[in-house]
Specification:
alpha/beta, Rossmann fold, Dihydrodipicolinate Reductase, domain 2, 9 helices, 15 strands, globular
Length: 334
């Protein structure tokens, strides 16, 4: 099997995890790192280091991870696309929908593979929920609700909680419902600043599904849950606990198409298959796709751009107090 030559640009928290993951992944050789901060580069002794993505382009890369601050994603991504270098670009894909679409267009025109690092999709409870939900095991999907909370670390300064955290849940909602977000209402509050530190939103997805979201980084414990309300009950995916629980609806369907009612039933834990860590799974998918395998499972640039557009609309809704229509070129997901 060919060994792929890879590099990482940007060595903050996410970039450092990507670098360590690539260094340990079979079939991949981490050949260089780029970051303008010498202290970050010093944390990876023994590897060639440079200060920019353009320096990396001279190293015959098979793919590159973009994990810079969000504002620099477009410049790095366009340089890679122009050079024909495949890329895994951290979420959010870009700071605006227009920038995200420019990135997507550049890679499409170059005929070069690229994906977005929405790693939450690869947590075992969410992956198993998606598999069973899309197979029709739980009947119709009625509603989604997410909660993503944690302490204030101060490590993210270029964006607020919406683009750092809520963008995950906006993406998860579209992925699970297989529909794009059409409108958003929201509220947000600045506490520590300079951007919003807590935000709550309700999005309306094509087909009539509501998704309710809350995220903040003012909570002294970590909380990560997604609930899918279906005809057969509520599925709760907890990625902190690593569990998926089905609280069943004991009501009996009278006939097809009629609301069966909701009656409390049993709660049962769904056994989850063993899976690698989310970052490892992302890179396994990139590696296999570049070696001729199926690119399924990777988050496409179109999906990443749709998540950016919906999150951008969310911030506009919070600022104006209005319901905002999402600007998106993404069709219904299949």
């Amino acid at each position: 099997m060919k060994t792929l030559r890879t590099a990482v640009v940007g060595l903050g928290w996410a970039g450092s995890v990507h670098a360590r993951t690539l260094a340990a992944l079979p079939g991949v050789a981490l050949v260089a790192l780029a970051d303008p901060d010498p202290a970050r580069l010093a944390a990876f002794p023994g590897l060639p280091t440079v200060t920019s993505v353009r320096d990396l382009l001279r190293m015959r890369l098979d793919y590159c991870v973009v994990a810079t601050p969000t504002a620099a994603h477009e410049e790095c991504a366009l340089a890679l696309a122009a050079a024909g270098v495949p890329a895994l670009i951290e979420k959010p894909l870009a700071p605006s929908a227009e920038a995200a679409w420019r990135i997507s267009d550049a890679f499409e025109q170059a005929g070069t593979l690229a994906a977005v690092g929405h790693s939450e999709r690869h947590h075992a409870p969410l992956t198993e929920l998606a598999r069973r939900l899309h197979a029709g095991e739980f009947g119709d999907l009625w509603q989604l609700a997410t909660r993503r909370q944690g302490p204030y670390s101060g490590r993210v300064r270029d964006v607020g909680v919406a683009f750092d955290l809520l963008v995950h849940d906006v993406d998860l909602a579209s992925w699970l419902a297989r529909q794009p977000v059409e409108t958003v209402t929201a509220a947000a509050c600045v506490i520590a600043g300079p951007h919003e530190d807590t935000a709550t939103a309700t999005s309306y997805l094509r087909g009539g599904i509501l998704a309710h979201h809350h995220a903040d980084w003012i909570t002294p414990f970590k909380h990560r849950t997604l609930q899918a309300h279906t005809a057969t009950g509520v599925l709760t995916a907890d990625t902190v606990a690593g569990t998926l629980t089905h609280h069943t609806n004991a009501a009996t369907t009278i006939s097809s198409g009629l609301f069966p009612g909701v009656v409390a039933g049993d709660a049962r834990a769904i056994v989850l298959p063993e899976r690698a860590a989310p970052f490892t799974l992302e890179h396994q998918l990139m590696r296999d796709a570049l070696l001729g395998g199926d690119a399924g499972g990777l988050v496409t640039l179109g999906e990443g751009a749709a998540a950016v557009a919906a999150t951008e609309a969310l911030l506009t809704a919070a600022r104006t107090g209005a319901t905002v229509h999402v600007l998106s070129r993404q069709p219904a997901l299949t």
